[in-house]
Write a structure and sequence with these properties.
This protein has 728 residues and is an alpha+beta fold. α12 packs antiparallel against α13. The protein is elongated, with a radius of gyration of 32 Å. The strands form eight sheets. Strands 6, 7, 8, 9, 10 and 11 form a six-stranded antiparallel sheet that branches. It has a three-stranded antiparallel sheet with strand order 1-3-2, with helices on one face. A three-stranded antiparallel sheet has the order 12-19-20. The chain folds into three domains: 115 residues, no CATH class; 148 residues; 344 residues, no CATH class. The N terminus is likely disordered. It is 34% helix and 14% strand. The N and C termini lie far apart (66 Å).
Length: 728
């Protein structure tokens, strides 16, 4: 930016006070001013090619004033821009008439070819019709009008270095710059439609959006880039795209117009306002950045065991773990953005929900795509599941003795197995209580703001499962019955034991009871490449060490949606009944519109088939890993896999019960579904109302029913179904 350096120095008249002194004033003033300019730190104003200092000095009634305009110009960029400026001027005044494009769609180039870029800087506008009138000037009619062509003045200003742009020049809306990135999780060039409920998101995120200044964000990103690549690295001010709203964060895509085409994502928590942000949230954001940094070292073979472990990779050739690389983190609110933030690298690829449902009758978000054959869809999905299983098994090297927030050793970049910190837990119970106006009467403007609580570390997996239940003891008879039934089913889960302890290997031998895992492995958090390989896994906020049945070997959460009727929107409509594979959007089911929005669902028999496929994939990968181990350690590893239970199969129930514990809204629906799956056709049904009534009154349920429930629950955990029970 051309910096205006005022130096108004009031001084009395010279000793002579005559006109002779005034005639020599200019030479004397500029000589004295040169010494003053030398004292200024002008290193930040240097430009690559051409710099200039325009100095003005005058004297009025005995007071001298000096004003110097310091600036610079990038001659190379001007040389690149001049042909484009001439071409646009010719098109503006001598525009030719040609045949109209099909369907009335005309692509008007909004930016000249600069720095060898062609398509990256085009601005495509859709117009309905083009009428050519006198003088060759085009008149455009349609919903969206084409912006005015840039002038030579704008192009010259655009050629200035970022720090030399005048304050009245705005980079983000300049017509010569590429349009901002709209979706950080999708690298395709097709036009992105506005997401549903966009206005509601802006209303819910209004507090944090008011805190963020995109100009300060762009300056911060440029400063960070120069710190990483050296002060001599040149890059213009980056472009900040439209914010993308997540469940509890707002994401700002940042794109640099440099040689590497650097792209970042700035993640800002919705609770990042000074009145809500606390130390627990700051520790969670800092911990997320440390975990992302640690994940980047999993494929490098560091540590004493080279990253090996039950299910871990241990192979340097597997490369970096597909998680975004953290660039910069500031968990405080007293910074340039006035909000906590985490800058990460941009992950190129396709969102997995679009890839997963592509080729089916519903497609992604309820849109229709070209139908693929059933075998091709199955092959695509198995390829994705195989890549995801191979990726998640690499987290097996991050086992811990305690469950909770991971403690990262920054010197060795590994998880400390004997330590844990309080976990950052989404307190759905507090949010439900606030919605029911039971939490202090807070206003309706923040009813969608997430509420978090601290969950302290545990060394017993059963205590870790039930920790959220202890925060809100039941107060009614029905609530006590539901709470007791949920604890009863949790006690039936068989967590992996420590293989080797029986042989006197010591209390710490064998498999640790907890392992680092993704907090919410949903479709929207997985990004894949065109060939189905996992390109990145995002959404690591709230990461913690969890029991192994819900850990890295567990099923992906979208494969167990049918065990939670509260969120599962599939219904046996005619469209789904006629196609054995294709999903149906929840909004298309009669009587169930709006529960899951436009999220497409797979039928329950398809989910059961996919669960079996994922269990088989994980089992084969673990056996291959055990077979590749050699020596005593390899024999011990094989013994662990032989004696351990199938946590992947059991995770169907573990994930469902864990969801019921954390979300009281779906607690009754999940428990009903589990009891329904445990009831055989030719036996007395295991009724949900019976257990809730008996346990709520403090009585013991019938022993025969409890034994049958335990037997069928174990069979459901081991096989994925109960013989004689309803299939779906």
């Amino acid at each position: 930016m051309p910096s205006l350096i005022p130096g108004i120095i009031s001084s009395p008249s010279s000793e002579g006070g005559g006109r002779g002194d005034d005639r020599r004033y200019v030479a004397r003033a500029r000589r004295d001013r040169r010494l003053e300019l030398a004292a200024w730190d002008l290193r930040g104003l240097r430009t690559p090619d051409l710099s200039f200092v325009l100095g003005l000095s005058w004297r009025v009634r005995g007071c001298t004033s000096d004003v110097d305009l310091v600036g610079g110009l990038d001659v190379r960029r001007v040389a690149w821009l001049l042909p484009g400026v001439v071409w646009r001027w010719l098109r503006k005044h001598f525009e030719f008439t040609g045949e109209e494009e099909k369907n009335g769609v005309v692509d008007e180039e909004g930016r000249g070819d600069r720095d060898g870029e062609g398509k990256g800087g085009q601005n495509k506008n859709v117009a309905g019709k083009r009428n050519v009138k006198g003088g060759g000037k085009g008149e455009w009619k349609g919903e969206k009008q084409v912006e005015n062509l840039p002038s030579l003045h704008d192009d010259l200003v655009g050629a200035l270095p970022p720090h030399s742009c005048p304050p009245w020049f705005t980079t983000f809306g300049h017509p010569t710059l590429p349009q901002p990135v709209q979706q950080p999780n999708n690298s395709s060039d097709r036009k992105q439609e506005p997401p549903p409920h966009a206005h509601n998101h802006q209303r819910d995120f209004s507090a944090i959006l008011a805190q963020i200044d995109t100009g300060a964000l762009a300056s911060l990103a440029l400063k960070t880039l120069k710190q990483r690549r050296g002060p001599s690295y040149y890059a213009p001010l980056p472009r900040v795209g439209e914010p993308v709203f997540g469940s509890a964060h707002v994401l700002y895509p940042v794109s640099f117009d440099d040689r590497r085409q650097t792209r970042w994502v700035v993640k800002v928590p919705v609770t990042g306002t000074p009145d809500v942000w606390d130390e627990l949230a700051a520790d969670a954001l800092r911990g997320e950045a440390l975990v992302l940094g640690m994940l980047g070292t999993l494929g490098r073979g560091n540590g004493g065991e080279n990253g090996r472990g039950p299910g871990g990779s241990g192979r340097g050739e597997e490369g970096r773990f597909p998680a975004p690389e953290p660039i910069r983190v500031d968990p405080g609110v007293h910074n340039a953005l006035h909000a906590p933030y985490l800058i990460m690298e941009f992950v190129e690829g396709i969102r997995r929900d679009a890839y997963w449902f592509a080729g089916t009758d519903a497609g992604a978000h309820g849109k229709t795509h070209a139908s693929y054959s059933e075998d091709r869809v199955k092959l695509r999905r198995r390829r994705v599941l195989h890549s995801l299983a191979r990726t998640m098994l690499r987290l097996g090297a991050c086992g811990t003795e305690q469950g909770g927030g991971p403690v990262i050793d920054e010197a060795a970049w590994r998880v400390l197995p004997g330590a844990a910190a309080p976990a950052h837990h989404l307190d759905v119970g507090a949010m439900v209580g606030r919605w029911l106006d039971r939490s202090g009467g807070r206003g309706a403007e923040d009813e969608h703001t997430p509420v978090y609580a601290a969950v302290w570390p545990h060394d017993d997996p059963r205590e870790a499962y039930a920790a959220p239940l202890d925060r809100y003891p039941p107060t009614t008879e029905a609530a006590r019955g539901v709470d007791a039934l949920l604890r009863l089913l949790i006690g039936m889960l068989r967590e992996p034991g420590r293989a080797g302890a029986a042989e006197g290997a010591g209390g710490r031998a064998g498999t640790p009871p907890f392992v680092l895992a993704h907090p919410d492995l949903q479709l929207r958090h997985v990004i894949v490449s065109e060939d189905g390989e996992v390109a990145g896994i995002v959404g690591w906020d709230g990461v913690r060490a969890v029991p192994r049945s819900v850990g890295n070997e567990a099923l992906p959460r979208w494969l167990v949606r049918d065990f939670n009727p509260f969120v599962y929107g599939w219904r046996p409509t005619a469209a789904a009944a006629g196609l054995g594979l294709g999903p149906v959007a929840a909004s298309d089911a009669p009587g169930e519109g709006g529960r899951s929005g436009s999220y497409p669902e797979d039928p329950p028999w398809v989910l059961a088939e996919l669960r079996d496929a994922y269990v088989d994939i994980v089992g084969r990968l673990k056996r291959d890993k055990a077979a590749s181990a050699t020596g005593v350690r390899g024999a011990a590893t094989r013994a662990v896999y032989q004696r351990d239970i199938d946590v992947t199969r059991q995770s169907l129930l573990a994930l469902s019960l864990d969801e019921a514990v954390r979300d009281p809204r779906c607690r009754g629906a999940v428990l009903r579904r589990v009891l329904e799956k445990c009831s055989a056709r030719f036996e007395e049904p295991l009724e949900y109302e019976y257990f809730v009534d008996v346990l709520g009154c403090g009585h013991r349920p019938d022993r025969c029913k409890v034994r049958r429930l335990a037997r069928n629950f174990a069979e459901l955990a081991e096989r994925g179904f109960v013989r004689g029970a309803v299939a779906w």
